């Protein structure tokens, strides 16, 4: 499809979905979405059309320039073949294939292999030529070929991975910062110099399609219903406060971020936003290698190291890190409550805080490959994190004389989490005769132990420490989350392109939350007394039994299909110790999944349509009934009786890429039923705002995403991502509707100034979002960095500055309910600088093999907030 035709198609498609159907009135059939729903998105995005054209047409124009040209002389010849990794015999996805003349370097015709490594060149002239096959990270293969009138199958053609000698030999090939694949986007974080010394949160903020709000909560294409994995596995590290957990993973240990927007049936019931997989660095190559690094700055400091070795059949990968971070903030809350009789109550709260944390992370992985057909893996990782948040709070409430307040509080919050994961796996392959046949058995046990507590002293004046203490409070919460998983997967090939995938899994979870609250009213008590209403123990068990099947097949040379389904049975039981609150909840879900992909004539172009249904169960963050009450005017707690939510996603995607550019466009419609939403209500008797969760809404999301990358010069890379979406939430329970159009954009640029110097810059913005009762603002982020290679390129020194034009950034929100209107302001100090040093040592040889890993991505994850435990 020529670029101009593509732009016309996308324009017509967008106009149709926005209600302007003059271009293609009959192409999509009857009207699917009311005009009044999407038309505001068109009006909102209209002002950004010049930016949109700049971002999208540059990669397309570049692609048109670098696409290989077809010889004016066509013939009857046809070449087919398959590109494999020489060591693993796995397909090399999307390798570049070019037909060269017998002498000279100008290609006559070019193409790209598919996801299974297959390629086909047609209409070739007869005679003697050379076939060149290349891919980033591999040495090129040049093979003489003689083309006749008869079709030729060249069979399997192998590429050898480029050797990496970290002691001084230059690595032959670098991956682009962002790669586009039919089912995912891959952000290669280790190729971005500005990440040095940062954290996983810093990297996610720059990942295409991903956004972090002011509190550090992760969002993907307009929804926070995202499951985050580490090396394709769940981790106890991420089981509690996700926003804090992401600050604990050093950026220097992250290789890539994979964003999967339409997961297949192999993934656990994930369906709303998608899956984000954090890929940590490790090596399965022969030899010994390692690294040590240190970083210092005003926001975070850390030390990290890794050591990897493989000798023959045995390999060991280790990593260890320690860190400290500081994230101060201040906030303001102004709430107007509507009282019976027409009166109002006015609340003002001001908070200043100095949030600081420290901890460490370690991992050990042992691999044993007794033969090329058998592989065993055993690994363990754990972390310890302590967080201290001293706060100073001013509170004033007016409007109800018997409940009016004026006081200040000195508050200290302290949290500690200890987590570990144990993994074991066996993988059986079946040699060159059946390179895609594979069977694996996997097991995992995770343990999360979180202890949260706070204490406060209250003073009856408008000034902190003004006069004697009138009230004291102390609260503790000990939460445990145990999870054990067994899984088996089998892949069987039929012919060269068709495969059948089967699998089964059992997940057993047990969660406990033991929480207490002690109070001391100085004028009436001499010591703390236990509050029975706010102290309890909650026990929760969940068992999930799942099975899936997926059949992948081809229809002709241009079409591939995937048909799959997942069956999941869930059994839940929970009870409170201090009340007759036992409950049970069982349900069975059938989750279909299908996709169709068409390979277009020009090299590297695909069109993909997919549909999937996914289930998301509430995580402990949403279930934990522990009442967090730092201030009497605002409390939050979980809802242990939550049911899962289900989501249906329809997505259309187009992708094209060449040697120097790539472009990816996608549009999606998502409907989430029984959606788990945060909601607030006002307790008139206690004059406080109470926040919890419920299955309250049906959510519709409509969106368009455009991503392009371009290499205008040999040492200069540019990439940009632009996303627009419209969200509409409706709750029959609360009799309310909320909607908003949002825009997100980021730009990344890197340039190699010389052999040892390079520079990087990035920036972006988002316009905010919407929840069932809340609308919140967006923001801007940016950063610059410079890197210098040292010690014969074995080390590097990186200086980076982020958000340096202002000390911090203000995030605003408005929550509207029938009982009150709440205006919130959160000011986060984000100006930062850091200096990082990394040293690499060792020598590696080619010979890595792929390994299976567990992916538990069925739970709806939590964000930052008041809930304790994990």
TrEMBL record:
Belongs to the TonB-dependent receptor family. Keywords: Cell outer membrane, Membrane, Receptor, Transmembrane, Transmembrane beta strand, Transport. It comes from Hymenobacter rigui. InterPro entries: Beta-barrel_TonB_sf, CarboxyPept-like_regulatory, OMP_b-brl_3, Plug_dom, Plug_dom_sf, TonB-dep_rcpt-like. Residues 434-839 form the Outer membrane protein beta-barrel domain. It is a multi-pass membrane protein. Residues 861-870 have a biased composition (Gly residues). GO terms for cellular component: cell outer membrane. Residues 289-309, 346-356 have a biased composition (Polar residues). It is found in: Cell outer membrane. Residues 289-310, 338-362, 848-870 are annotated as: Disordered. Residues 185-275 form the TonB-dependent receptor plug domain. Its main location: membrane. Residues 848-860 have a biased composition (Basic and acidic residues). SUPFAM superfamilies: Carboxypeptidase regulatory domain-like (SSF49464), Porins (SSF56935). It comes from the Bacteria. This is TonB-dependent receptor.
């Amino acid at each position: 499809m020529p670029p101009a035709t593509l732009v016309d198609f996308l324009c017509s498609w967008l106009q149709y979905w926005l209600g302007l159907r003059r271009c293609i009135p009959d192409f999509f059939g009857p009207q699917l979405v009311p005009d009044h729903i999407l038309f505001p998105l068109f009006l909102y995005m209209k002002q950004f059309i010049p930016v949109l054209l700049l971002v999208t047409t540059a990669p397309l124009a570049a692609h048109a320039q670098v696409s290989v040209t077809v010889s004016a002389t066509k013939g009857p010849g046809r070449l087919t073949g398959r590109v494999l990794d020489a060591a693993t015999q796995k397909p090399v996805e999307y390798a570049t294939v070019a037909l060269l003349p017998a002498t000279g370097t100008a290609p006559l015709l070019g193409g790209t292999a598919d996801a299974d490594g297959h390629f086909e060149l047609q209409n070739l002239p007869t005679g003697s030529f050379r076939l060149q096959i290349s891919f980033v990270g591999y040495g090129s293969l040049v093979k003489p070929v003689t083309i006749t009138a008869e079709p030729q199958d060249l069979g399997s053609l192998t590429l050898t991975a480029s050797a990496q000698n970290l002691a001084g030999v230059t690595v032959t090939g670098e991956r682009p910062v962002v790669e586009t694949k039919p089912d995912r986007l891959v952000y290669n974080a280790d190729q971005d110099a500005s990440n040095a010394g940062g954290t996983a949160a810093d990297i996610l903020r720059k990942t295409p399609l991903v956004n972090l709000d002011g509190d550090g909560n992760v969002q993907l294409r307009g929804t926070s219903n995202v499951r985050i994995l580490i090396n394709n596995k769940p981790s106890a590290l991420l089981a509690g406060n996700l926003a804090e957990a992401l600050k604990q993973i050093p950026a220097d240990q992250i290789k890539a971020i994979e964003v999967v927007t339409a997961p297949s049936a192999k993934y656990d019931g994930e369906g709303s936003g998608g899956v984000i997989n954090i890929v940590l660095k490790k090596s399965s190559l022969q030899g010994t290698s390692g690294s040590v690094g240190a970083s210092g700055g005003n926001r975070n400091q850390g030390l990290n190291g890794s050591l990897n070795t493989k000798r023959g059949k045995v390999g060991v990968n280790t990593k260890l890190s320690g860190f400290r971070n500081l994230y101060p903030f201040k906030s303001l809350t102004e709430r107007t409550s509507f009282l019976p009789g027409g009166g109002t109550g006015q609340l003002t709260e001001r908070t200043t805080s100095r949030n600081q944390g420290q901890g460490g992370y370690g991992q050990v992985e042992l691999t044993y490959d007794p033969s090329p057909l058998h592989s065993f893996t055993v690994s363990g990782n754990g972390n310890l994190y302590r967080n201290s948040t001293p706060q100073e709070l001013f509170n004033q409430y007016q409007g109800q004389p018997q409940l009016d307040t004026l006081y200040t509080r000195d508050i200290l919050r302290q949290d500690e989490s200890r987590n570990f994961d144990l993994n074991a796996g066996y993988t059986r392959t079946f040699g060159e005769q059946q390179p895609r046949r594979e069977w694996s058995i996997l097991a995992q046990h995770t343990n999360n132990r979180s202890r949260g507590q706070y204490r406060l002293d209250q003073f009856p004046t408008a000034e902190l420490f003004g006069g004697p203490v009138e009230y004291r409070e102390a609260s503790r919460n000990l939460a445990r989350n145990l999870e054990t998983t067994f899984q088996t997967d089998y892949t069987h090939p039929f012919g060269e392109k068709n495969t059948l995938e089967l699998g089964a899994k059992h997940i057993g979870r047990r969660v406990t939350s033991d929480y207490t609250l002690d109070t001391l009213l100085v004028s009436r008590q001499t010591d703390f007394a236990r509050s029975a209403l706010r102290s309890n123990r909650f026990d929760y068990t969940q068992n999930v039994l799942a099975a899936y099947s997926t059949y992948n097949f081809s229809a002709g040379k241009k079409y591939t299909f995937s048909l799959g389904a997942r069956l999941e049975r869930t059994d839940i039981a929970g009870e409170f110790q201090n009340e007759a609150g036992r409950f049970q909840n069982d349900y069975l879900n059938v989750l279909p999944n299908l996709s169709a992909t068409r390979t277009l004539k020009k090299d590297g172009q695909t069109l993909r349509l997919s549909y999937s249904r996914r289930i998301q169960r509430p995580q402990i963050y949403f279930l934990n009934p522990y009442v967090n009450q730092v201030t009497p005017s605002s409390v939050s707690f979980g809802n242990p009786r939550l049911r899962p939510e289900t989501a249906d996603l329809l997505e259309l995607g187009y992708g094209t890429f060449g040697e120097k550019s790539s472009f990816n466009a996608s549009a999606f419609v998502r409907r989430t039923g029984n959606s788990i939403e945060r909601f607030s209500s006002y307790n008139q008797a206690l004059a406080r705002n109470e926040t919890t969760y419920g299955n309250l809404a049906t959510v519709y999301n409509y969106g368009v995403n455009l991503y392009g990358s371009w290499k205008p010069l040999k040492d200069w890379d540019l990439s940009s991502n632009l996303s627009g979406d419209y969200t509409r939430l409706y709750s029959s329970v609360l009799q309310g509707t909320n909607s908003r159009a949002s825009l997100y954009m980021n730009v990344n640029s890197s340039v190699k100034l010389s052999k040892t110097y390079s520079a990087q810059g990035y920036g972006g913005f988002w316009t905010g979002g919407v929840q069932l009762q809340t609308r919140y603002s967006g923001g801007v982020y940016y950063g610059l960095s410079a890197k210098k290679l040292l010690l014969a390129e074995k080390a590097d020194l990186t200086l980076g500055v982020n958000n340096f034009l202002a000390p911090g950034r203000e995030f605003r929100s408005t929550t509207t309910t029938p009982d009150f209107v709440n205006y919130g302001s959160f000011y986060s100090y984000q100006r930062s600088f850091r200096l990082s040093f990394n040293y690499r040592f060792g020598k590696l040889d080619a010979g890595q093999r792929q390994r299976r890993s567990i992916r538990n991505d069925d739970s709806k994850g939590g964000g930052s907030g008041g809930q304790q435990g994990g």
